[in-house]
Amino acid sequence: MKVIVDAFGGDNAPLEVIKGCAEAVSGLGVEILLTGSESVIKKCAADNGISLNGMEIAHTDEVFDIHDEPNEIIKSKKNTSLGLGLQLLAEGKGDAFVCAGSTGALVMGATFIVKRIKGIKRIAPSPVLPGDKGSFILLDAGANTECRPEMLVQFAVMGSAYAEKVLGYKNP
Fold this sequence. Notes:
Layout: E1 2-6, H1 15-28, E2 31-36, H2 38-47, E3 55-59, H3 81-90, E4 96-98, H4 103-114, E5 128-131, E6 134-137, H5 149-165
Parallel strand pairs: 1-2, 1-4, 2-3
Antiparallel strand pairs: 5-6
């Protein structure tokens, strides 16, 4: 599996992002495609003794700031590490995209750059969380303030499919 990761999204980026990616490569055996400034990523990794083995870098100098308007991801911020990551996912250059940056921009980009699954009206950010009886999925973790019943059904179907296919739950 190849995971595209915005190296400059979120707090303490790119260091904490690179650390997490190195752990994913060694612990999970995934391939990583980092998006962002190649020179900054390489220097950060070298300065902190982090191996970039199993990781590629797709270079861009721009970063989507948390204070930018989310809709700018489809307008003037396409060449940011977040925008590039979404575009690479849309082009099939990876199997998943991870970003700890602007949730609004991620939702906007996922909707208009990557596109939704046919028939799905809205995305539903759904983290997998640890529980006392194993992991569970928190469906629609706050992105949608108003949902119609058919959207809730769509969220449940997507969550069930993910739980079965990715987490390996039988009859979730």
